[in-house]
Amino acid sequence: MSTLLRDLRHAVRMLARRPVFTLVIIGTLALGIGLNTAVFSAVDALILRPLPGVDRPNELLQLYRKWPGSEHGSNAPAHYIDVRDRTKDVFSNVAAWSIEVLNLSADGQPRRIYGMIASANYFATLGVVPRQGRFFVPEEDIGEGAHRVVVLSHKGWIETFGGDPNVVGRSVLLNGIGYTVVGVAPEEFRGTMPIITPTLWLPLTQIAESRPGTNNPFQTRGNNFLSIIARPAPGVTAGAIQGRIDAVVQQLREEHPDAYRESGINIVPQSEAGFHPEVRDAQYGLTSIVMAVVVLLLLIACVNVANLLLAQARERSREMAIRLGLGAKRSVIIRQLLTESVLLSLVSGVIGVVLAWWAIGLANQIRLPVAVDMTPGLEVNITVLLFTLGVSVLTGVIFGLAPALQATRPDLVPALKGESPSGGSRSRLTRGLVITQVALSIILLVSAGLFLRNLEHATQVDKGFDSSNLLIADLDPGLQGYSRARTEQFYQQLIERIRANPAVAGVALINDVQLGIGNSDWGVQIPGYTPQTTERMSIDAAVVSPDYFSVLGTRLVNGREFRATDDSSAARVMIVNQRFVDRFWPGQDAVGRIVRTGGRDYTVVGVVPTGKYRRLGEPPTAFMWVPQSQSWQSGMSVHIRTNGDPLALSSLIRSEVASLDPNLPVSNIRSMEQHLGIALMPARIAGSVLGLFGVLGLFLASIGIYGVMSGAVVQRTREIGIRIAIGAAGTAIVRLLVREGLVLVGIGTGIGLVGALAASRLIRGMLYGGSGIDAATFTAVPLILGAVALLAIWIPSRRASTVDPIEALRRE
């Protein structure tokens, strides 16, 4: 310990002697370490961190229905009850839950919220203790429509009741029905959907009340919307759980052959499920790329600092020679020099944590363009601090080791005479660092450039509709207790009122906005078509009003659009996209064909081009639309085609809805361009973040190259003075130094392009329709970096060409 303290005191004294040098290193490393800390906090929040406020979260398992082509489907209530009752020997608790949109009124002002319906054992399964009152009791799992009680989240308690300590026993109106508050969840508990905190929880018996229009929810097995989470019983092995689940599936296949012929149950550990297993790979992919880029940025910073320390080692060569000449051990000197570098990196790490804390605060204030209040919950916790400590120590060793080894190998005689070292391994190391820096910068800049170009491509993807001048708003009169007849009348009046405005070109409705977070798929049968064994006969579908396609600007390939006469008394009709036709009737006319879904036959009356429905990068996907009047949905999104700025009509839809029903809330009013922020979000995050990192990388690279070339010129001052003394022109000196510098830059560029090519092959799966080989990016990046490097080389070379040869020779 005394040795360490002595080395630390020596390191502090040495660094204090060179305050400018020390501050430059600390600033450079703090930037790199801070960015790594901030990005790792996102990785921790989105991937690594277990469910907050949950007891032993890593024990939990998610149970998904699986069909051919889908491994992670939702569950029907009847299916959940069977699984719960038949697995008591392997699970201590099996709970179900679902996110629901609700109309809440606690102060006379209705608003739409996101709540959860949950089984009575939901909180017990998660091991959560109430902050106030109680949670649901087992009796509240019995009786459809019974037990009108709610549990508030801490967020819901604050937002709805202002944190009233006497909230238990108070009432709220949900979908026009009165409920009694029985408890408040603890602040740290945010539920089982990461980054989304519900306002409240309702008992599972309230399915029909929370989902108006739902028929026989506890009897049907095709209405899948629940998530199931289970906690294994003590001592039960994974093999025993899988065996029991397989046995349950076999029983259900025998009892309900139509519902389970191709269905099974997939078990996924909660630690691997995250937001949802189907987006887990995308989460890993995006965070891995961003993490790799900030590591590259940190490596570039390390190379810069290594160059600075190498230059300092030349200045301290006489000190090292004297110490070695007096008998000091080389290992002791290396240890002291590494103590200096690690001390620098630890101080940089502390400042980096402050920078990361500031960046995290900004990130947590970002609100995504969706109706759900999605909070990333980034924080500087113990895991993040340990990561920063590890990165700081490793960084200190990485940038300090090579200069320390070089500093303790001086040519003793020249060093003792105070002469600058020349040639040898030190020059080779300097050249190697320049090449390394350029190569890393090329990889970083090309990766950033590819994602910036990807963002440009994403905005140009053919979505199948015209996104300009469209205003969207969400409504659900059914949540306010409207009957179907009253809802139909409401929508008809609303459309007529809005359409009468001269600034409106058209109005239509759809249940799930295209390229949003909501979607639904329906099982289909095609007469005359025999599906393959593993083919999933489930097609994405939407419910729309007449004129929907004309309002969206989607042209018809064949047939006609829906009409007002396609009502509940008329023959059932359907419109499909071209991919649907190519899959089931290739090369044939689809109009007049029959599609069976939900036990009913629909006749295809129109075909539209294939667009994008769930995400911009999806492959061509079959899709079908049916009229709202023939497949009733109460909750719809109003689409208004405007003649100008769509947001200018936001007040119009609010006023028209209020004139029809002042208690009916309108939510999530946005333009289609704002809505598309959901689909463009991955591309925008990657493009913006990596673009910023690319600029920082270019800045660090230019500073590093300039520093290296300046140091190299200083080292060659005597040589340059001799050349000038014997008649060499200043321009010849500049050409010589620039040529030598550009050779190193060229080598680094070549190595970097090979590395960038390999990196592009790894990330091409995240690019919209791109192969990862973008000629513009691979051409522009070397040219930009080459121009910056040329300037960084030319400035010290030009200064060297004006040196006084007498002064240069005297300097030695």
Helix-residue proportion: 40-55%
The termini sit apart by 42 Å
List unreliable stretches of 5+ residues.
Answer: 412-418
Quaternary status: single chain
Q: Count of helical segments?
A: 25
Record field, number of beta strands = 22
The best one-word shape is elongated
pLDDT averaged residue by residue: 82
The fraction of residues assigned to DSSP E strands is: 15-25%
For the biggest β-sheet, the strand order reads: 3-4-9-6-8-7
Main sheet: strands, sense, barrel = 6 strands, mixed, barrel
Structural class: alpha+beta
Please describe what this structure looks like.
The strands form three sheets. Strands 3-4-9-6-8-7 form a six-stranded mixed barrel. Strands 14-15-20-17-19-18 form a six-stranded mixed barrel. The protein has a four-stranded antiparallel beta sheet with strand order 13-21-12-22. The radius of gyration is 33 Å and the shape is elongated. The protein has 25 helices and 22 strands. It starts with a helix and ends with a helix. Helix content is about 50%, strand content about 15%. It is an alpha+beta fold. Helix 12 (about 330-365) packs antiparallel against helix 13, helix 15 packs antiparallel against helix 24 (about 775-800) and helix 22 (about 715-725) packs antiparallel against helix 25.
Concise account of the structure shown:
With 812 residues, the chain is an alpha+beta fold. 50% of the residues lie in helices and 16% in strands.
Layout: helices, strands, pairs:
Blueprint: H1 2-17, H2 19-48, E1 61-67, E2 70-73, H3 77-86, E3 91-105, E4 111-118, H4 122-126, E5 132-133, E6 149-152, H5 154-161, E7 171-174, E8 177-184, E9 200-203, H6 207-210, E10 227-232, H7 238-255, H8 257-260, E11 264-269, H9 270-273, H10 277-315, H11 317-325, H12 330-364, H13 382-407, H14 412-416, H15 424-459, E12 470-475, H16 484-499, E13 504-510, E14 520-525, E15 538-544, H17 548-552, E16 558-559, E17 573-577, H18 578-584, E18 594-597, E19 600-608, E20 623-627, E21 636-642, H19 650-660, E22 667-671, H20 672-675, H21 677-715, H22 717-725, H23 730-763, H24 775-800, H25 805-811
Helix pairs in contact: 1-12, 2-10, 2-12, 2-13, 10-13, 10-15, 10-21, 12-13, 15-21, 15-23, 15-24, 16-19, 21-24, 22-25, 23-24
